[in-house]
Give the backbone structure.
Amino acid sequence: MNEEQRIMDKFGNKYPGRVPDGYFESFAAGMTESLPEFPCEPKPAPMTLWQRLKPYTYMAAMFAGIWLMMNVFHRVSGAGQLSLDNPPENIAQIMEQSEVMDYYTPVSALEDMEAEMELSESYTSMEDFEKDFGYSLTPEYAGIEINRDVN
């Protein structure tokens, strides 16, 4: 005989414990009665100053990070190192004047070239150009003569 058979002969296979009649039917009702009462809606805890300011702080940090990245990219790209004889700031100031804006609004490269030709034909000397635009040529270009006979 093996060990399992011997235990079965000695004790049997019946469960010695027993559940009282109607226990599971009254279990749910008895459990809810024994629990303490809780309010239906819990009161929210008051927000601290940091909890109210946290979203705005994060947003400010995000914009500061974006500004810093753009500044770094601008410096790395070398865009600030351009050296022009005619700075873009001067051109922008001249273009903001209403009479210049009405006169010069090119839409295509052909219109741009036509406007340049019309402007160059309207001046007979560099002195007139310098006087109208408030710009003087650097010394190495001061001796340039305008030749109108080229066709």
